[in-house]
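Q: Give me the 3D complex with iron/sulfur cluster.
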Amino acid sequence: MQLTLWTYEGPPHIGAMRIATSMDDVHLVLHAPQGDTYADLLFTMIERRKKRPPVTYTTFQSRDLGGDTAQLVKDTIQEAYDRFQPKTLLVGESCTAELIQDQPGSLAKGMGITVPVVPLELPAYSRKENWGASETLYHLTRKLLSPMATATGSAQSPTPEGRRPRANLLGPSALGFRCRDDVIEITRLLQSVGVDINVVAPEGATPDDFVRIPDADFNVCLYPEVAATTCKWLERTFKQPFTKTVPIGVGATRDFLQEISSIAGVDVAHALAPSESQLPWYSRSIDSTYLTGKRVFIFGDATHAVAAARIAQDELGFTIAGLGTYSREFARDIRAAAERYGVTPLITDEYLEVEAAIAEVQPELVLGTQMERHIAKRLGIACAVISTPIHVEDCPARYAPQMGYEGANVIFDTWVHPLMMGLEEHLLAMFRDDFEFNDTAVASHLGPAERPAETPAAADADAPLRWAEDAERELSKIPFFVRGKARRNTESFAAERGIHTVTIDTLYDAKAHFGR
Amino acid sequence: MNALTQPSELPAARGCGDLPVLRERGQREVFCGLTGIVWLHRRMQDAFFLVVGSRTCAHLLQSAAGVMIFAEPRFATAILQERDLAGMADCNEELDRVVTQLLDRRPDIKTLFLVGSCPSEVIKLDLAKSAERLSRQYRGRVRVLNYSGSGIETTFTEGEDTCLKSLVPEMPALPAGQRSLLIVGTIADVIEDQFSRLFGALGIDQVQFLPPRRTDELPPVGDGTHFLLAQPFLNETARALMARGAHHLAAPYPLGAEGTLEWFRSAANAWEVPENTFAETLRAPMARAEQALERYRAQLAGKRISFLPDSQLEIPIARFLHRECGMELVEVGVPYLDQQFMGPELDLLPRTVRLSEGQHVDKQLDRVREDRPDLTVCGLGLANPLEAEGLRSKWAIELVFSPIHGFDQAADLAELFCRPLIRQEKLAV
Ligand code: SF4
Ligand code: SF4
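A: Here is the predicted complex, encoded as structure tokens.
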């Protein structure tokens, strides 16, 4: 058993729902109890989708368990099929149905349904949402494309003369992070270098569109968490290469274009430094000097976390103070990145661990998910959301991609916004005792709010360490965002030296010892 | 003021069963009883709710709780893992470990509810036994109780019923010869205070509430207890209280001015409060409520409304909207119908209403599209799709999370239904 307050990912059947909800002409029948229908609201409320997810639940109850739940499954499948007339039927189960072992997938196969039926294995007690999405996309693709795999002999012919190269965009899905706008941005980018889009999937695709996937020359793996498995299969089966760079940030977008150039043989030189890319200049502008060395803590799905780290370090001049992910499947990527930035990777899906890590590092900015937004709020640290899980405010009405050059512009604005502006910060540091303008106030452009009161870290430690009154006062003059760290550093400095009372001198000795 | 002085104005109880009920089976689109934790953990400030379930259960809770993460929640999920199911880990030992971890973190907790889920019930994890065992282990420090919030046993608000029922055996005995009035069901703190004041003014001063704000202050129960249900989904709790000798005071629910008045009257009758004391005491709040309602009645009268089954509040609220606001009831759906505790409400519904029990969500939505009511009360998953079809909707869950009971909230309750209609008129995009 795992004690959980909040969870980063839902169970794997939510992943299956994300694929089904992204598409048209597909229906998913889930063997699940009534409470599991809550999942519909994720799509209709968080993303404000206008249609109910194409999902029918068996909603079996206790009294059904003694009887024939298999018959209930079959009746539900038949009714959903008759009512919705999908072109492909997905069949799966949630955690409870997994325990009663009706095998809805096999039941569906024996029902003489004339459209493709894709049975889904969604092990609820060992896997999670992104895995479920990835597997569903993979099995759906396999089911729909296997007939072609044999027919074409699986050989991908080179792009014919005179035709522009074509790419599929794979991975954008319901409840992903800014997928709608990323697709628009990447479509424009690819078209600007002479590449046409063949199929975007799963978002907005039908089973008929899937059948056209092999017509493309290569695949763009936009969201590896969802599409990597499928891209690998397509590479094996149809010899379609796929991109490995996720174009989030200016540098990554350029690398992505170079990769496109080598896969598709197109000239990308003119697209490498377009005029609409503001981030490089904004970052160099004198105003941004105050961003230098800001300590950021990054946590999210692996793709967005790795991308955020690169932008933070190379494009905004921040310092990475922590880097982690809840995507265990992609832990290796995070480990590699963490090594590059000299931090210890945090691979966990336990919210409490992430909270402890952030409290420990005391960063000036948290780039995370909705969960970290709550942690940061509680700790009084600035925060921007970079990854799922999301809430309704992470689905903005305006165009706000993360990918490509416009995505980088959006990121610059979003990350810099919660921070204190340059001179404002200096003034706070100089005149700490102004009764109106002090550091319990938040940045002036962020409206009225109070920072939470600080609690002495070592109040209950067993070591009898105390702070002299004047040292405590001096500590309060240190900017709030480094105060916790200063306190802890000073205390560990004192403890190492057997000092029992922290004086002003101890404080400054520790400061000299640790540096900033 | 007629209602105040003429108690017999209400139709005589006709018994149940004379309203035809459309009973449906199919996909239900309702939360499970775990959802009750979202408000119960705020009401009982020294209680913690530990769901023993799956990642789905944890995900449901946080989705239902939405952004209400202001403080560390007093609920959590012990997520079953593969090794628990494969028998590699002894579930009881695992549970003990998790509980220890939890109680170490929260030494302020006085009552721990182990909440059963579909998975824990299907694998027949005996949480009653676990609760006993843990209660022994933590004797004097933490009381450990258990109840089911599973979706195979409970529907949305029914989780409060199973929770409160688990508290009934823990309630101390009311000494013989004493009388007390017990109000059952979570209501907003401000309404609890209003009710206490009014009961006091009626001369009923032994008034207690279940659930209490703190679980170490459980009210006593016994032969001298009369209880009123404040919420229409507490049937099993009511039966458990009756088994401990308490007497149920049958009444409509305290929603709307009329419902609240009759609810108070039921207690006043049991306490033999003189007619004129009753009329005097409730005159002012009743007049205030009626006056405040006036404004909204103008907007709601003649508008047509359908209820999809959700919180069990459908029948009393439909009764209020019809009788006090002049709305036309098209369909009133409830997850389940308990005639015993819904009787006084059913008597007040117009004979023309289409009453449905259970759910087949697709057929029900077909009917909504055909009926095209001005307003449809439904769950969160259905609201936006209906809006996108041009059908105005109202979230049922808002009715559970807003202070709507009593005289002074009658107009607030009406306003909740006006808002979508006003919005529709205002928007010109
Ligand atoms: S319906 Fe059952 S499995 Fe689903 S969230 Fe509720 S208790 Fe958990
Ligand atoms: S317990 Fe794990 S671990 Fe479980 S439901 Fe679930 S996915 Fe899962």
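A quick observation: DSSP finds 18 helices and 14 strands in chain B.
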